[in-house]
Amino acid sequence: MTSVKINEALCKGCGLCANACPKNVLSLSKHNMNAKGYFVAEVVNPQHCIGCTFCAIMCPDCAITVSE
Amino acid sequence: MKTFTKTKMLTDAPMHYCPGCTHGIVHRLVAESIEELGLQEKCIGIAPVGCAVFAYDYFNCDMQEAAHGRAPAVATGIKRCLPDRLVFVYQGDGDLASIGMAETVHAAARGENITIIFINNSIYGMTGGQMAPTTLIGQKATTCQKGRDPSVNGYPIRVCELLATLDAPYYIERVATHDVKHVLAAKRAIKKALQFQAEGRGYSFVEVLVSCPTNWHMAPVDALRFMGEECTKTFPLGVYRDKSEGKI
Ligand SMILES: Cc1ncc(C[n+]2csc(CCOP(=O)(O)OP(=O)(O)O)c2C)c(N)n1
Ligand code: SF4
Ligand code: SF4
Ligand code: SF4
Ligand SMILES: [Mg+2]
């Protein structure tokens, strides 16, 4: 099973990952704010992840790790 | 199924770029390419003046900061003294095509064996959104608030096309960062450019269209759409020179 992890400290809540995900696995949180004041990306549908790494390819801050 | 971990060619320093600014994507592509080519220990990067001024904190190799626009001249000196090193230059459009246009053109005309990564976001990002030589017709900036008007502000400069009029450059390509497909193509171009330098073939230049959500006054996703739909019209993507393929 693929697992996608967001490093919340690095995330800037830009949403480019969620926009690139073909399976709607990711979404920007409306509640979870990091120390920099950004609402971070969250993994909302982990079971749908196909491990395509599109999210990580579009993340400008290398905040995403995709592993098996 | 694929996996993704951050390349060791980038340090762990958190990048200072605004949310959704694709400068960060290009940093990663350059870093991954150097690592994949196995040239990390041989690499020296030149950082510009502009939003990427702190690039020296992010690349895990020797880095030299250059005065505004002078990076190709600094790279020339380093490469000629240390010809076995991989020397790359990372410059914005204000830096490369405005104050540094002379250094840009002459390094290309001499065919220096260096690699230029040209970040075209059609604006002066760092200083707060002034018009750049690459600002699109009609695009707003603090110094052309009603949009760029060619009768007053002139026309955008297409740097790849301009450099492709010179004989010396070995490889010139324009790529973009607005979606996965284009980011992957940008990676291939950057890696190819660095590889050509490592093989001693001469001057390589990759222009990368990048977003500036902050000074374009757009949400990050909207800025990517603007890049794909508008920037690529003024700046057509493609290979402008590739002597390895006989494209002169
Ligand atoms: C000699 C000199 N002139 C002007 C400046 C002010 N300045 C700093 S960055 C910059 C332009 C930055 O734009 P660009 O190169 O497009 O980089 P970006 O921030 O958009 O990535 C200017 C004019 C300076 N630092 N030094
Ligand atoms: S790896 Fe692909 S499917 Fe999984 S979260 Fe990232 S973009 Fe979505
Ligand atoms: S692309 Fe990266 S920085 Fe942007 S929201 Fe997703 S994880 Fe956060
Ligand atoms: S001002 Fe523009 S180019 Fe500079 S970091 Fe912010 S979004 Fe990126
Ligand atoms: Mg710029």
Keywords:
heterodimer, A: 68 residues, alpha+beta, two-stranded antiparallel sheet, two-stranded antiparallel ribbon, 2 helices, B: 248 residues, alpha/beta, Rossmann fold, seven-stranded mixed sheet, 7 strands, binds thiamine diphosphate, binds iron/sulfur cluster, binds magnesium ion
Short description:
With 68 residues, chain A is of the alpha+beta class.
What's the helical proportion of residues of chain A? Answer: 10-25%
Query: What is the CATH C-level name of chain B?
Result: Alpha Beta
CATH class of chain A: Alpha Beta
CATH superfamily of chain B: Thiamin diphosphate (ThDP)-binding fold, Pyr/PP domains
Percentage of residues assigned to helices of chain B: 25-40%
User: Which ligands accompany this protein?
Assistant: thiamine diphosphate, iron/sulfur cluster, magnesium ion
Distance between the termini of chain A: 6 Å
* Quaternary structure of the protein: heterodimer
Number of domains of chain A: 1
Largest sheet of chain B, in brief, is:
7 strands, mixed
Strand content of chain A: 25-35%
Helix-strand pattern of chain A: EHEEHE
Category from helices, strands and their pairing of chain A: alpha+beta
Please outline the major beta sheet of chain A.
2 strands, antiparallel
The gyration radius over C-alpha positions of chain A equals 11 Å
- Gross morphology of chain B is globular
